[in-house]
Amino acid sequence: MTLAHNLGSLRATGYEARTVKEELRDNLLHRLRSNEEPFPGIVGFGDTVLPDLETALLAGHDLVLLGERGQGKTRLMRTVAGLLDEWVPVIAGCEINDDPLRPVCVRCRRLADERGDDLPVSWLHRDDRYAEKLATPDTSVGDLIGDVDPVKVAEGRTLGDPETVHYGLVPRGNRGIFGLNELPDLAERIQVALFNVLEERDIQIRGYSLRLPLDLFLIATANPEDYTNRGRIITPLKDRFGAEIRTHYLSEITDEVALLRQEAQVAAEVGDHLLEVIAHLTANLRESSSIDQRSGISARFAIAAAESVAAAALRRSARLGDSTAVARVGDLAPVVPTLLGKIEFELGEEGRERALLDHLLRLAVATTFRDRLAGEDLSGFTAVIGEGTLIETGDQTTADRLLDQVGPVAGLARVLDRLGYHDGADRGQAAAAVEFVLEGLHLTRRIDKDLIDGRAVYGPTEPRGGLE
Predict the structure, then answer these.
(1) Domain boundaries in the chain?
(2) Measured between alpha carbons, how far apart are the two ends of the chain, in Å?
(3) Cα 389 to the chain's mean position, in Å?
(4) What stretches of 42-187 show up as alpha helix (H) in DSSP?
(5) Beta bridge partners of 458
(6) I need a surface site. Which of 40, 224, 302, 317 has the fewest CB within 10 A?
(7) Which fold, 7-246?
(8) ∠389-395-401 over CA atoms, to 5°?
(9) Strand ranges across the sheet with 216-222
(10) CB neighbours (10 Å) of residue 210?
(11) 381, 409 in Cβ contact below 8 A?
């Protein structure tokens, strides 16, 4: 079919026209039956969101994805476009991608009558069949639906001539998927303009109705708080969507780590145990009563944290001349406060933001330490400290210097294995493991830690003493 260049050669291939919703249904069924992943790159929604999404697609329903910020709504919306056919034929030069077998615009119907089987055909890739618009209060009907083109009127056409229309984004998305982000941010009069698009599949411009049976699949996103008649959405528009699907933040630490591995663009090596710390920190923030949960903690917070930790490790290695840049647990504390702008705190927390974040970070490190090294014999590390050795680390301490301070320590190989470094770990990875153990021992009150001029000094616990 890709060789067809006119209507006659297209018919000769046996091509049969399908609607967009039929394409999505057929291709989704094919992937489900062949055990292919219908929505690659979507993490943590397999048992919750995706079954509802698949049902909506099979039913041919336009849909709204409801969720807080940073829950992957836009990513999910764009992934649906991967279910479209890779190539579809369109009438060459058509502004709204008319099907050669079923032209709908005035220009293409006239051209089909004039050219017959010589009607020129071109091919449209699936990547060009997805259009997206961020709804904003200043979005106009002309932006979405269309408006009269004064240039065409000036050329001599009458004002009521359908060919004077300059099509907006929705008609130009014909035979594809149109994604509308933050639907409730549209002004009410613009929401009304979508009524006919969703139900009757025609458009109205400048007081006259242009019968245009659009073939498109509409997906919108919204915040649940706004998507109510008390918010910024009008009820008749809600009624025209076939499905409302709720998204959510990831509930499993393993899913959060998988998402970080997939999305974060790290400039240095960041071990899985540090990604787990970031994942636990994110979970702690989402559960904290000191955080405005209506605003939520976006997945972008965790992604930015992972990238910042890697950047801190890269900066340290460049300044100190380490051969490799490997992130350590000490790289977390300096960079996390730079992410405060991504968090909305409850009233009454003014001035405590950094202290709260530091506290939740310590909890995240302690949780990861217990998860990773529970039951592990760490007496080799405590023995080194128990001998009165002080171990200094921080952004002025190279990997070699840290390891030289510790010396040969029993159990390090087991720790490396439990942290996922396995055999052949380099000195940077070994230093990262040692620092993680030292911090974990401190947080579980088995050794002490002092902060001196930005340096962390680990040593034996001080005797608590009693009344004399």
Answers:
(1) 7-246, 253-459
(2) 94
(3) 46
(4) 49-59, 73-80, 106-115, 141-144, 150-154, 169-172
(5) 391, 449
(6) 40
(7) Rossmann fold (3.40.50)
(8) 45
(9) 130-134, 176-181, 216-222, 63-66, 243-246
(10) 18
(11) yes
| Sign of the C-alpha dihedral computed for residues 402, 405, 408 and 410 taken in this order | negative
Six-digit token pair at 232? 């910024």
For 103-158, write each residue's pLDDT tens digit: 988 889 999 999 999 999 999 999 999 999 999 888 888 888 888 776 666 666 66
Which stretch of DSSP H or E encloses residue 122?
A: strand 121-125
**Residues 153-192: b if buried by 16+ CB within 10 A, e if exposed:** eeeeeeeeeeebbbbbbbbbbbbbbbbbbbbbbbbeebbe
Q: Please list, in sequence order, all residues whose beta carbon lies within 8 angstroms of the beta carbon of residue 79, skipping any fewer than 6 positions away.
A: 39, 40, 41, 42
Q: In the 8-state DSSP scheme, what is residue 1?
A: -
How many other CB atoms are found less than 10 A from the CB of residue 33?
A: 8
Would you give the distance in Å from CA 387 to the centre of its chain?
Answer: 49
Tokens of 460: 């034996």
Helix (H/G/I), strand (E/B), else coil: 83: helix
Distance between CA 445 and CA 443 in Å, rounded? 5
Mean pLDDT of 314-329: 93
**Do 226 and 11 meet the contact criterion of CB atoms below 8 Å apart?**
no
In the beta sheet, which residues pair with residue 147?
166
Judge residue 341's burial from the number of C-beta atoms within 10 Å of its C-beta, 0-12 exposed, 13-18 middle, 19 or more buried.
exposed
Alpha-helical regions (H) of 288-389: 299-320, 332-335, 353-373, 379-386
Tens of pLDDT, residues 351-383: 888 899 999 999 999 999 999 998 899 999 999
Cα 130 from Cα 78, distance rounded (Å): 8
Give the residue with greater pLDDT, 468 vs 243.
Answer: 243
Contacts of 391 (CB under 8 A, 6+ apart): 384, 385, 402, 405, 406, 438, 457, 458, 459
H or E element at residue 65? strand 63-66
Burial of 459 (0-12, 13-18, 19+ CB in 10 A): middle
Mind listing the pLDDT tens digit for each residue in 444-465?
999 999 988 878 999 988 654 4
In sequence order, what are the residues at sequence separation of 6 or more whose Cβ sits closer than 8 angstroms to the Cβ of residue 416?
422, 425, 429, 430, 433
Angle subtended by helix axes 253-263 and 299-320, to nearest 10: 60
In the chain, the amino acid numbered 400 is D
Q: How far apart are CA 322 and CA 310, in angstroms?
A: 14
**How many residues are listed for the chain in this entry?**
468
